[in-house]
Design brief:
mainly alpha; coiled coil
Length: about 200
């Protein structure tokens, strides 16, 4: 009987050791699973945080790209508008230049004609001076006519200088338009690489 009880005791102790070992193994596996689960949760939190940051960056990039698109579109519109004004100014400048050249040529011819008239009147004056003793009234008329021709000569000279000054004004305006157009082209060239980087 004692031997039988001793045998049962040994069997129970053996079973206890076995159960204890299995429990330790299960506990170790459970701890490992907990560690893996916690590590997985940390990774998920990190991935979620990264995802949110990426989405925020993408949103900011979209906003920045939209702003760049708007700026580029405005720059293009402004450039087209200035080009239209440039073309118009160039056309008008050409027309004005041609008109000025025609008027200047006419003024030169009129000036030469007036100068010739002055020379002719001077000769007439000299002749009139010789005839003054005979016809004083005719002398007065010739003097008045000569003064009128001098006034005409001064008038056409003033017209010539005025047209010349107007032509210089058009040239300065064209230079100003060139500078503005260059600025818009420079702005467009600066914006295009930024837009290409976001596409």
């Amino acid at each position: 009987m004692v031997a039988k009880l001793g045998k049962e005791k040994e069997d129970l102790q053996s079973e206890l050791y076995k159960e204890t070992g299995e429990n330790m193994i299960l506990k170790r596996k459970s701890n490992q699973r907990k560690e893996l689960l916690e590590e997985s949760r940390k990774k998920n939190r990190i991935e979620q945080d990264l995802k949110e940051r990426v989405l925020e960056c993408l949103h900011q990039a979209d906003n920045g790209l939209g702003s760049l698109h708007d700026e580029l579109a405005k720059a293009k519109r402004d450039g087209q508008e200035w080009k239209r004004w440039w073309d118009l100014a160039t056309k008008q400048k050409k027309e004005v230049r041609e008109e000025l050249e025609t008027q200047i040529q006419e003024l030169k011819e009129q000036l030469r004609s007036s100068e010739s008239e002055v020379v002719r009147e001077r000769h007439l004056k000299e002749r009139a001076q010789r005839a003054f003793q005979i016809c004083p009234k005719a002398w007065e008329e010739k003097c008045d006519e000569l003064n009128t021709n001098k006034d005409l000569t001064s008038y056409w000279k003033e017209q010539y200088e005025s047209l010349k000054s107007q032509g210089m004004g058009w040239l300065n305006h064209r230079k100003h338009l060139n500078e503005i157009l260059d600025e818009y082209e420079c702005t467009i060239n600066l914006l295009q690489p930024s837009v290409a980087a976001y596409r």
